[in-house]
Please model this.
Amino acid sequence: MGFPGHWAPNDLMFYTGKMFPEKYRNGAFIAFHGSWNRSPLPQAGYTVIFVPFKNGKPSGNYEVFATGFTGRESIAGSGQAKYRPCGLAEGPDGALYISDSKEGRIWKVSYGK
Model:
């Protein structure tokens, strides 16, 4: 599966939890640290995406799962991003944890009905 250039994937995690809806089970979450050298284009890729899997292979297009880490619509350099996703972990309850390399923040993403 291809992703836009210079997004800088930092971590990949296969979701085995049961908190999120069925479509997320056994799929892959990928934390993209974001670009720093796309000039003259705006920097991009500060996001967490989800890739559905079936029988051990990607089974559809990726979707943006979490975004807004830059803190604004557009940035010209990586230093302008408020946060940069870099790590993923699954909690015992099935929640997704996303870590940031710039400020040391950790987000807990959970799903409730």
The mean pLDDT is 92.
